[in-house]
Write a structure and sequence with these properties.
Protein name: Thioesterase
Strand order of the largest sheet: 4-3-5-6-7-8
CATH superfamily: Alpha/Beta hydrolase fold, catalytic domain
Number of strands: 8
Family: Belongs to the thioesterase family.
Structural class: alpha/beta
Largest sheet: 6 strands, parallel
Strand content: 5-15%
Number of domains: 1
């Protein structure tokens, strides 16, 4: 791993920053509860088309999302940093790590991926981006990643549907970067009962790095993060402190 100096300060002297990427349909606010309790700096990266970027068009392409994130992340690095992404966010973080891999700059301390199959494994999700609005709402309500009360407010549903459609289109059409291994550790997180992954094969993320790969399981399904937040943050802190 490359060490470097950013803004005139040695990277090892700065608190580590965790850049966070949300799941499909979500925005940066998914990670804002982390900021008060994490012993590291939490920087949620906002996708176009939601929250304070609502006026922008959603981007239905993982590679383009990673390219947009690259500009923001590089501008906000101050010392050691790592990347964390859940579900669609894991795809974006993975592609971003590959973009940074070829840059002459300090590399992330680690890539932490959550709720996502290894890139060389086929997705376990059924395609939904082509569904009509009513069917897409039914699928999303059943999946459980959006607060149930949202579906009772037509004006919120109207705002959310283009985001969901673009995000799931991005996930369904993702062509992972292949043929190159990262030179940073990959840490894999998952709910023990996540039906979006094959938990017993999450260790296959090892294929995508020349460094170490760990797997950490937490109680819950695909959307385990809110309930497990305290344990997840503690595990991230331990992994980053050990620099494994």
């Amino acid at each position: 791993m490359t060490n470097g100096t950013i803004g005139g300060r040695a990277s090892d002297q700065a608190p580590i920053t965790l850049f966070c990427f949300a799941h499909a349909g979500a925005g940066a606010s998914a990670y804002r509860p982390w900021t008060a309790s994490a012993p590291f700096r939490v920087v949620p990266v906002q996708y176009p088309g939601r929250e304070e970027r609502l006026g922008e068009a959603p981007v239905p392409d993982i590679s383009r999302l990673a390219g947009l994130a690259e500009t923001e992340v590089i501008s906000r690095i101050d010392g050691r940093y790592a990347l964390f992404g859940h579900s669609m966010g894991a795809m974006v973080a993975y592609e971003l790590a590959h973009r940074i891999r070829v840059r002459d700059m300090p590399q992330p301390a680690a890539l932490i991926v959550s709720g996502r199959q290894p890139p060389h494994h086929p997705s376990r999700l059924v395609a939904v981006s082509h569904l009509d609005d009513a069917a897409l709402v039914r699928e999303m309500a059943a999946m459980g990643g959006t607060p149930a009360e949202v579906w009772d407010h037509p004006e919120l549903v109207e705002l959310l549907l283009p985001i969901l459609r673009a995000d799931f289109r991005a996930c369904e059409t993702w062509q992972p970067t292949a043929g190159f291994q990262l030179d940073i550790p990959i840490h894999v997180f998952s709910g023990a009962d996540d039906d979006h992954v094959l938990v017993e094969r999450l260790g296959d993320w090892q294929r995508h790095t020349v460094r170490g790969c760990t797997v950490s399981l937490f109680p819950g399904g695909h959307f385990y993060l809110p309930a497990a937040r305290t344990d997840v943050i503690a595990r991230i802190a331990a992994l980053l402190a050990n620099r494994v």
